[in-house]
Every structure is written in structure tokens, then in C-alpha cells.
Automatic annotation (TrEMBL):
Transmembrane segments: 26-47, 59-78, 90-112, 119-137, 143-162, 169-192, 212-233, 245-271, 291-315, 350-371, 383-404, 416-435, 451-470
Main subcellular location: membrane
InterPro entries tied to this protein: AA-permease/SLC12A_dom, APC_superfamily
Source organism (scientific name): Paraburkholderia sediminicola
Gene name of this polypeptide: puuP_1
A single GO cellular-component term on record: membrane
Amino acid permease/ SLC12A domain location: 30-477
Protein name as catalogued: Putrescine importer PuuP
Length: 483
């Protein structure tokens, strides 16, 4: 039942080309998933509101807490990846542990969540292009003009194979990490700000001050994307070893990097002033210190790297969604034509075109409604997507426990029970915080925003109903799902 994922049995006889296997190594997968997390975008976008609305100077501790929760989650997630090698990681794991109806619910929620996160990023890309590029190009192009150009570039690049994508994302990731690290090192070398280099931001006095839950919520949103390690199992070398290692390495790198960089920026402003600046000047929060320590030229480079960071995240999420669509078509849930693989690039090109089309349709609806790129397209879409991913991760944790209790394939108590249980409870708690503070996460108290948890629930319920219908009407497809 849980043999390694092998599409050769299900691939279209008229198109027997498969995904390019044995292509990705450890660091290539790490590049793919950290690019999805978009470190530069996360730091510039999430840190100021996390400080002003959350726990102030204790923000580095909030990133540590979020990272530790995800590390614990990763224990069960990585253990599962050694036994269930599937392209549709979340829904395959849920299917293996909790059954096909809930697995179908997981598939629909994953598709919806990643799609809206991608929509959010296209809105963000368009918004920052109007701020950064329009003055340089002397153009009044609306935000969606830039967004649609980016859609075309992502499609062009995404279809050209995962090996090229991973190399490109590796370069972009190093650039955005490098500019943040350069600023952090400059702050350290100059001894910090008013309070010097102090470890006070990591002490309980500051970490647990203010609204820690809101700070952890924003910190957690900055990690979204790391869980994509498992979807590349079919295309990586020795997936039962590489995927678990890539998962741990990705979470640890994001955790250490975010904690270090946020610690230096708090030290640069000082414990008493950091909240005031983050509240009054959130858009310039990082650029002020960059101008002070690195100069105007490097600060300009940082602004352009922000665009490349968003593009890298978009390309990474495009690859994630395409592989979900490809996996579902192989299993008969979606039309068989979507499993076609490009003869030259060995990429699921039809699924790629469908993913791009779905993005264009949703962006078109926002454009037709005259939606604001930042306050609506980005803020609302990212909030909806984040809720879905957090709930998926929580359910996945509990499915790990169920899977190992049924199969006894891993009898280690920590890996098969304790860590998944603790991780699942922690993720559920973060999910509750998200729901309670949707206005802070989305920047709106609109009734539409308040309905987001119900939308996620409705999509999941539709998945369960589809699963039950398939069990009765199409037992052949039902038996194949998640396998």
C-alpha cells in the first residue's frame, strides 16, 4: 500500500516521459524551499508588524519559538518521508495515516492555500515594482502590469526543468541572504545601537512581553514553504535520505538566520526605540539601518533584491503547485492530460500551464474589482493561504501518529508519537492564534476576512464529500488515490 511513489504505472501510454529523476541533491532542495520562504521578503514585510503589534524587542525569541515548533513537526514529517515517497506530500501523508476522504480534503486545501499564497506574492511583486521600478523607468504602469509580466516569466522559467530552477533559485537565495547578512555583520562590527550588543531580546522579560502570540504568528508565516521538501522526492537522489535531511537543514537555516538577523536589527535601534520606529516607519524600517551602516548604493541594491526575492518565492511555489497537480492527474483525480511531461525539459508542462491559467483568472478577478495590491491582494490572500497551510501541517502531524501506529514501521517513541503530538498541538495553537488575530495578519476586519476559516473548512469538507463519492462511484480511482 505504501510503496515508493512510482508514476510509471499510471503515466499516459501516449506520453511515457517521466519527471527527471535523480536530479536534485540536498542543497538544491534546500534552495527550492528556502526560496519559497523568501527570507528578504519575510524580514522586510513581517518583522515590523511583528514588533509593533507583537512582543516588541523580543521578536528574535518569537522566531526561535516558531522555529522550534516546526523542528518538532519536522521530526514526524521527516520520518514519514522515509516510508511514503509521494509528490503530493501533505495529502499523501494524511491519506496514509487518516484515510482517503481526509486525504482528499488535504489535497484541496493544499491547492487552495498555495494558490492564494502565490496570488498574494504576485500582488506584492506588483506593489513593490510601482514603488521601486516605476520611478526609475519613468512609467505609470499599474501594479497588475508588473504582476502579469512576472506571471509570464515564472511560466517561462518554471517549464524549463527543476534542475535549472533549483540553480537559479540558489543564486537568488544567496543574494538575498547575503545582503541581510551583510547588514547584520555591519551592525555587529559597529557594536549595535543605544544598548550595544545585548542578549536581552532573548530573555523571558522581552520574549513574553506584549502579544507574543501575534509575534509568533508573523514569525511562523515567514517559514511557510519549507514543507515542500517532500514533494521533490521523485526528482531527488536517494529521497529516503535526502528529503529528511533537507527538511531539517531548511528549518534550522531559516531559524538561525531569522533569529540572528532580527536580533541585530533590534540591537541597532535599541530596546526602547525599536517599537516606535517599527510602528511609525514600517516600510523604511530596514532601509534606515541599511543606509546608516551600508550606504545608499547598497540600500538601493537591497530594494532591487526584494523584487528578486519575491520572484524566487513565486517560482518555488509554482513548482510546488505544479507537482501537486501532476500527482493528482496521475492518480486519476484530475484529467490525465495534466500528467504529460515535456520531452526535452522533463517537467510537467501541461500542469504548469494550468497553474498559470488559474493564477491569471484569480488575478483577473482582483483586477476587475479594483483591489489594492498591498492591502487586499497581498494581505487578504496571504492570510487565507497561511491559515490553510497551518491547519494542513497540524493534521499531517496527527496522521503521522496514526500511520506509525497502524504500520509499526517506526517504533521510536519520540519520532512516531511524542514529536508529532507536540508538533500537532503547537500548530493547532498557532492556528487558533491566526484565527483570533486575522485582523492583524490581514490588516482588515472585513466580514470577508472573518470568513476565511470557514472557507478553509468548506474546502476541506468538499474534499471529504468527493472522497466518499469516489469510494462509491469510482472505486478504481478511490483505491489509487494517495498511493
Amino acid at each position: 500500500m505504501n510503496e515508493p511513489y512510482s508514476p510509471t504505472r499510471l503515466v499516459d501510454a501516449e506520453n511515457p516521459v517521466e519527471l527527471k529523476g535523480n536530479t536534485l541533491g540536498l542543497w538544491q532542495i534546500v534552495f527550492l524551499v528556502i526560496s519559497a520562504a523568501a527570507p528578504l521578503t519575510g524580514m522586510l514585510g513581517a518583522v515590523p508588524p511583528a514588533i509593533s503589534l507583537g512582543n516588541g524587542a523580543g521578536i528574535p525569541g518569537a522566531f526561535v519559538i516558531a522555529g522550534v515548533v516546526l523542528l518538532i513537526f519536522s521530526v514526524g514529517f521527516a520520518s514519514m518521508s522515509r516510508h511514503v515517497v509521494r509528490a503530493g506530500a501533505f495529502y499523501a501523508y494524511i491519506t496514509a495515516g487518516l484515510g482517503r476522504p481526509l486525504g482528499m480534503a488535504g489535497a484541496l486545501v493544499a491547492l487552495m492555500s498555495y494558490t492564494f499564497i502565490q496570488i498574494a506574492l504576485y500582488g506584492l511583486f506588483g506593489f513593490f515594482c510601482t514603488v521601486i521600478l516605476s520611478p526609475v523607468l519613468h512609467t505609470a504602469m499599474p501594479w497588475y502590469g508588473y504582476s502579469l509580466i512576472c506571471v509570464a516569466v515564472v511560466q517561462f522559467t518554471g517549464i524549463r526543468g527543476i534542475d535549472l530552477n533549483s540553480r537559479l533559485l540558489g543564486v537568488l537565495m544567496c543574494l538575498e541572504l547575503g545582503i541581510l547578512l551583510l547588514l547584520a555583520i555591519a551592525i555587529v562590527m559597529h557594536g549595535g545601537g543605544p544598548n550595544g550588543l545585548t542578549l536581552a531580546p532573548f530573555t523571558p522579560e522581552h520574549v513574553f512581553s506584549g502579544h507574543l502570540g501575534i509575534a509568533v504568528m508573523f514569525a511562523f508565516a515567514s517559514f511557510i514553504g519549507f514543507e515542500a521538501t517532500a514533494i521533490y522526492g521523485k526528482e531527488c537522489r536517494d529521497p529516503k535520505v535526502t528529503v529528511p535531511r533537507a527538511t531539517y537543514v531548511s528549518v534550522m537555516l531559516i531559524l538561525v538566520f531569522f533569529a540572528f538577523v532580527t536580533w541585530t536589527i533590534v540591537c541597532a535601534y535599541g530596546l526602547n526605540d525599536v517599537v516606535a520606529v517599527a510602528t511609525k516607519q514600517p516600510g523604511d524600517f530596514w532601509f534606515i539601518q541599511s543606509g546608516k551602516y551600508l550606504g545608499g548604493a547598497v540600500t538601493t541594491v537591497m530594494s532591487f533584491l526584494l523584487l528578486s526575492s519575491i520572484f524566487a518565492s513565486l517560482l518555488s511555489f509554482h513548482n510546488t503547485l505544479v507537482r501537486y497537480i501532476h500527482a493528482l492527474s496521475l492518480e486519476g483525480i484530475l484529467p490525465q492530460a495534466l500528467n504529460r511531461v515535456h520531452e526535452k525539459y522533463r517537467s510537467p508542462y501541461v500542469a504548469s500551464y494550468l497553474q498559470t491559467l488559474s493564477v491569471c483568472v484569480l488575478l483577473g478577478l482582483f483586477i476587475a474589482a479594483g483591489s489594492d495590491a498591498f492591502n487586499i491582494v497581498f494581505s487578504w490572500s496571504s492570510a487565507l493561504g497561511t491559515i490553510g497551510i497551518v491547519m494542513l501541517q497540524a493534521v499531517t502531524s496527527f496522521s503521522v501518529i496514526a500511520f506509525f501506529r497502524k504500520t509499526r514501521k517506526d517504533t521510536r517513541v519520540w519520532h512516531s508519537f511524542v514529536a508529532p503530538l507536540v508538533g500537532g498541538i503547537g500548530l493547532l495553537y498557532i492556528g487558533v492564534i491566526l484565527v483570533r488575530n486575522l485582523d492583524a495578519l490581514s490588516g482588515s476586519d472585513s466580514p470577508i476576512v472573518k470568513s476565511f476559516p470557514w472557507i478553509v473548512f468548506a474546502v476541506a469538507l468538499c474534499g471529504v464529500v468527493i472522497g466518499l463519492i469516489l469510494r462509491k462511484k469510482r472505486p478504481d480511482i478511490y483505491a489509487r488515490f494517495g498511493q
